[in-house]
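# nightly structure sweep
# worker-07 picked up a monomer target from the shared queue
# config: single-sequence mode, recycle default, output format = structure tokens
# input follows
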Amino acid sequence: MNIAELGSSPNADPLVKTIIEHDLTRHIVELDAYGFTVIPPEKLGTPPDFAERLRNSILNTYERRHGVEVGDWRTADLPTPNERAWELVGEDDVITEAVLNPVVLTMARWHCGQSAILGGTSSIIKPPHEKNYLAIHNDTHGVPPPQAAYTHLVNTSWVLTDYADRDDGPTVFVPGSHRWGRAPAPHETKFWEWEGEDRLFEPVPIEAKAGSLAVWGGNTWHGAMNRNSTGLRVTMVLVWLRSYMQRLSMWGESAVSPERLERYPELHKILGYDHPYPFRDYVDKPDKIADMIAPGQDQFA
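# output follows
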């Protein structure tokens, strides 16, 4: 029996079909069981040079915004902190392609519904040989316990340099923590300081080839290892939200050019340009407010 072909769940059916088409079933199971998964490049439908193009675009954007030169990322250090890392969609076609990748959209909408909005984009460029651990946290910021069992937001991160072992400075996760319904307490965050019997839990570092997609829901506890390998760790982070959540970036008119919006029409929807709130004169309010009712009736809407 192929339930997705029955047409009984118009919001869920296309997601299920894409999951099957791209062989993502195992990853959906991992997300449910552990709270995170890594989708390899061969399941993302990207060309062989995609990771290289996207990595170069992220580094070129960093150089242009900060007025510095990186050189060869495989041996480079970071000339200055990456303080202008946000709002990347309008920078380059390859970044827009990464945002609109069908698997990325499926992961976003599986967690946050067909009305999911791109809440923010940023780059992480981690240099070597620094104490740059990232403390354990979850991404459902500002939501007090008990946090809902369903997902308010999801992180889909393009891994653009290999995570081969702990020295590469990979993201680490606490399996099953998405079911605990709360953010970590202060004493649960600095996992690198724990020794022996003082260890509260053992965060799991992910392994991923460049060009992979790491996915986790907002309730999942995670952090990152210190980087000891030579060169830079490069990641592009996409944060997707349910339509009632406050966005990290409000995507003003200058964020994306009219030409890019014309070439990539789905950006109107995922950037929230059609969202009725906050009220704007150019949005058809009665129709759009009616559209907002559906997500309250169907978790995939």
